[in-house]
């Protein structure tokens, strides 16, 4: 199986690449700065590219079975453009499976309200959450078998295996190690437990019980 990782040089992306290689996947790391991918491996290919370049995205996706994305954007408006490039290329190349990182604000606070629309949600994160929600809507309107993983604060750290997941709602804790986030995303390739769903995730320590 051959996977491609967008945002491969970031906190979560680098963990996905490392752990995927340990699982004997053939991995393509797509990054604006290929020198940020600090790995050499016979089963690793590194592609320099910008996800805003639709031709480069289409070219990079050819020959892959699974797409994983841990993209981060300085400009939230670029997020939807980047994901549209991925979605459209996947449609054209008939690649079905996408596992991507979103944000906690996209999850439901109640049956009728997402977390980003609650009064206590920090105002500085509203625009970022809005851009994540637009991506979620684009995925929902696509033909793709997507999983949209929506973490709270992502902390640089290795896999512990001690984390909670919950469809559509946040499990309670306020952080997740990048290694655990990567572990869940790679497990989901085989498990396929959350096809076309949002997923809340957090480390189990210091989590609070959801009612």
From TrEMBL:
Record-linked InterPro entries: NAD(P)-bd_dom, NAD(P)-bd_dom_sf, Polyketide_Oxido-like
Cross-referenced CDD domains: BVR-B_like_SDR_a
TM stretches of this protein: none
Coiled coil: none
Domain of life: Bacteria
Domain NAD(P)-binding: 7-191
A GO molecular function held by the record: oxidoreductase activity, acting on the CH-NH group of donors, NAD or NADP as acceptor
A Pfam family it matches: NAD_binding_10
PANTHER family in the cross-refs: FLAVIN REDUCTASE (NADPH)
Protein's name according to its UniProt entry: SDR family oxidoreductase
Source organism (scientific name): Solitalea agri
């Amino acid at each position: 199986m051959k996977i491609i990782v967008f945002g491969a040089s970031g906190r979560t992306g680098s963990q996905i690449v490392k752990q995927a290689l340990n699982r004997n996947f053939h991995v393509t790391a797509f990054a604006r700065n290929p020198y940020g991918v600090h790995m050499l491996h016979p089963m690793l290919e590194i592609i320099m590219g910008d996800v805003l370049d639709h031709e480069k995205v289409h070219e990079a996706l050819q020959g892959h079975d699974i797409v994983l994305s841990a993209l981060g954007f300085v400009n939230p408006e670029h997020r939807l453009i980047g994901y549209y490039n991925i979605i459209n290329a996947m449609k054209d190349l008939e690649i079905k499976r996408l596992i991507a990182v979103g944000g906690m604000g996209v999850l439901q606070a109640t049956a009728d309200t997402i977390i980003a629309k609650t009064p206590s949600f920090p105002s500085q994160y509203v625009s970022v959450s809005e851009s994540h929600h637009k991506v979620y809507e684009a995925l929902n309107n696509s033909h793709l078998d997507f999983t949209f993983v929506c973490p709270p604060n992502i902390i640089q750290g290795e896999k512990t295996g001690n984390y909670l997941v919950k469809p559509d709602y946040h499990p309670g804790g306020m952080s997740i190690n990048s290694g655990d986030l990567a572990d869940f995303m790679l497990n989901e390739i085989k498990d396929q437990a959350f096809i076309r769903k949002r997923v809340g995730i957090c480390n189990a320590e210091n989590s609070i019980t959801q009612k």
